[in-house]
Amino acid sequence: MPTALITGITGQDGQYLAEVLHGEGYRVFGLIPGQRNPRADLVASGLPYVELIEGDLADLSSLIAALEYTQPDEVYNLGAISFVALSFKQAELTANITGLGVLRLLEAIRLVGGTDNPVRFYQASSSEMFGKVRETPQNELTPLHPRSPYGSAKVFGHNTTVNYRESYGMYACSGILFNHESPRRGLEFVTRKVTNAVARIALGLQDEVALGNLDAKRDWGFAGDYVTAMHLMLQQPEPDDFVIATGKTHAVRDFVQLAFAAAGIDDWERYVRIDPRFFRPAEVDLLVGDASKARRVLGWEPKMAFEELVTTMVAHDLEAEQRKLS
Ligand code: F7E
User: Fold this and answer.
1) CATH homologous superfamily of domain 3-180+222-244?
2) Residue 186 pLDDT more than 90?
3) Parallel/antiparallel/unpaired status of strands 250-251 and 217-218
4) Whose alpha carbon is nearest atom 23 of ligand 1?
5) Which residue minimizes the CA distance to atom 38 of ligand 1?
6) Among 3.90.25.10, 3.40.50.1980, 3.40.190.80, 3.40.30.10, what is the CATH number of 186-218+248-287+304-325?
7) How far is Cα of residue 45 from the mean position of the Cα atoms in its chain?
8) Average pLDDT score, the chain
């Protein structure tokens, strides 16, 4: 039975990936940080087959212990401070977890695995690394120009992954994933914030939603599609880096308009208030990915289109809010 260890098991991607790996017959371990982490209960009830193990990306010896105990064939590093806006307020913490955490995990794998290290490592790199984009669309060779402490930390993690592959011959892959969403997305991210607010507004539970920059453009896909690419990357004969994206971009404004329309509300502007608190010190204006390498080498392609993603998220949130009322 192959064994996988996932950091960030309580997040959106960790949950979808655990489902995929369990379906493929893996034994799945999830690394859980913190003391009495409340999100551990969520995983325990939602994904009962995941075996939780304590450990923290800020603590090298806990990572060594986790690797020694689980003896994984594959390690997926999805753990991070992942909210860009928060990274401006807690830059040092972000650098430590999102950036140095990658180095610690790779060091732990190197120390535990020794030479001829059999462990296959996946790093969750991000389109935020492209930041102030140098070319459009962005591919694996596009220069990096991060615009936030989060983006900078991801660049460090990405470069470290490549460096460990080249220096020690480790099987280390980096998936450069563009924005990916789902009903499991945290409420702090703009898509879920909007679909949740739309559901509550449609049900008369909320009057308005306060948002920031509606002009930013993102390449949004479905998280359930994207985690299959992570697994595919680790099944290749040689480790490599891949952009995972839909190739289509939409403004935040388009997402908002479609989400309101999905709940039968056409005059969405009545319900949206622009609040400067949600503007960022530096913005990533436009992202659109070129995933042709993933299509060619991995045979991967996204299944869910943008419109379906928006309507699925709104339908989920309408049902969830309605359930709370009954
Ligand atoms: O913002 C704008 C905001 O926070 C998207 C993370 O998963 O994807 C994500 O990073 C856009 C930005 O995601 C609000 O200024 C407007 O331009 O949903 P987001 P993100 O920053 O693109 C990448 C690939 C990652 O790796 C990250 O971990 O929406 N925006 N108004 C807003 N954003 C938020 N959160 N809230 C607003 O009210």
Assistant:
1) NAD(P)-binding Rossmann-like Domain (3.40.50.720)
2) yes
3) antiparallel
4) 179
5) 211
6) 3.90.25.10
7) 22
8) 97
278 alpha carbon – ligand 1 mean position (Å): 10
pLDDT one-digit tens code per residue, 60-102: 999 999 999 999 999 999 999 999 999 999 999 999 999 999 9
Of these residues, 26, 125, 128, 152, which one is catalytic?
128
Burial of 251 (0-12, 13-18, 19+ CB in 10 A): middle
Question: Among positive and negative, which fits the CA dihedral 108, 111, 113, 115?
Answer: positive
Residues with Cβ within 8 Å of residue 213, at least 6 apart in sequence = 252, 278, 279, 280, 283
